[in-house]
Design goal:
169 residues; alpha+beta; 9 strands
């Protein structure tokens, strides 16, 4: 598959659609390791299952907007190593506690750092980076500059960087 590099400013409707597509693809073909790096992070709705469109991915999901913690917990249950890097801000505490409760600490690692400013998602076959925090405003209100990369070289480089910077094997 050829490398794809996309850089654009997305509207407040496009960012949720892109994130939904990324996480649905993850659920269908989970990465060995999934990094989510964001200074501010909330338990945002990430998959719109109000019409039971994604019932085949998780039959236990109700007709609702599936939250980020539910998707990450599902991936951890499928043996994806979920790694979160975020700041020690009180805003992030609720999400972190919810995720740790849902995963019972299995396959889920949280790295807290005061200096964090990077943002992105890194899976086995893609890297999404840009200006977006994983919060309501970050995905639905603010105009964001996003880069989506599928180059194996870029992904490998970022995996080394993420592992060196925020831990992991």
């Amino acid at each position: 598959m050829p490398s794809r590099h996309i850089h654009s400013r997305l509207t407040s409707r496009q960012v949720p659609d892109l994130l939904q597509a990324i996480f649905v693809a993850e659920l269908m073909n989970p990465s060995y390791c999934l990094w989510l790096v964001s200074p501010w992070i909330s338990d945002i709705p990430i998959i719109d299952n109000t019409a039971n469109t994604f019932l085949c991915l998780e039959p236990a999901w109700s007709r609702s907007r599936v939250r980020l913690s539910e998707v990450l917990a599902n991936l951890a249950e499928q043996e994806t190593t979920v790694r979160i890097a975020t700041r020690p801000d009180i805003h992030n505490r609720s999400f972190i506690e919810t995720l740790q409760t849902k995963t019972e600490g299995m396959n889920c690692h949280i790295h807290i750092t005061e200096e964090l400013h990077a943002k992105g998602i890194l899976g086995d076959g893609y890297y999404l980076a840009g200006s977006m925090n994983f919060t309501y405003n970050g995905i639905t209100v603010n105009e964001e500059a996003i880069t989506y990369e599928t180059s194996p070289e870029v992904i490998a480089e970022q995996q080394v960087f993420f592992t060196h910077r925020w831990g992991g094997a």
